Write the structure tokens for this entry.
Amino acid sequence: MTLLEVVQALDAEILYGQTLLDRELETCCGSDLMSDVLAFTKRNTLLCTGMTNIQVVRTADMTDLGGLVIVRGKRPPASFLEEAEAEKLPVLATKHTMFETCGILYACGLKGCSVKE
Amino acid sequence: MAEIKALKLAFDVPGANFDRAGEASAKLKRTLQQVGVPAEVIRRVAIGSYEGEINLIIHAGGGQLQAEIYPDHTRVIVSDQGPGIPDVKEAMQEGYSTASEEARAMGFGAGMGLPNMYNCADAFEIQSKVGWGTIITMDFKHQDR
Ligand SMILES: Nc1ncnc2c1ncn2[C@@H]1O[C@H](COP(=O)(O)OP(=O)(O)O)[C@@H](O)[C@H]1O
Ligand SMILES: [Mg+2]
């Protein structure tokens, strides 16, 4: 699924990444727990989260995530977006809740990051 | 025997400073990218190093992150002179955590850090003593898994 298709499915706002919309995402993860993101995601995963602290961007950088979706209409601070831009990490914002966001993306065919390979 | 030169990096990680958590690991990651280490390996080094860096901040009041980059492997050493770990075996269990509320609020403290470091590295060693501190050494071969 491309980032553009994610934007359309979630009726999301693009906070950063207008030029990266053709990026292909392979898997998706919904979590507020950065410890879990560090332990269980694969490269190029889309992370849906309600967290907006700078550690989300750092975690995304370390794990080579493909993009972020901030759920429930939350807004990350400017420093968050500046760092995301420096790392070419797309950031979307959606009004949907975490549950709805994950459900919509799952129905679109995006797969989870299963614990077992 | 000819001595193999390593590219060495050293960072001081200040304690209790969440805003800067991950900066040292990010710099290490950029350096590995410049050197041309495979991306899959860099990802494991970055995750292991970042987990160690976070632990310095949330458990040890700060410490040092060092990296030695050799042609065929990278060594990451995470050291501190903090409180030490009373029972290392227990601390290595998935889910064991003494993290503060503040650390949890940032999305950490799930007790997955040490096991994750162990899993990411090709070799993992931990030395810790109460009142002395903790030294973790991780080796990563420059080879995809
Ligand atoms: N550098 C350290 N100094 C003192 N204690 C530590 C250190 N690193 C880890 N620990 C102890 O080991 C536990 C498990 O660590 P970890 O697996 O990283 O989980 P978490 O950081 O989520 O608590 C910590 O909660 C803490 O009690
Ligand atoms: Mg930890």
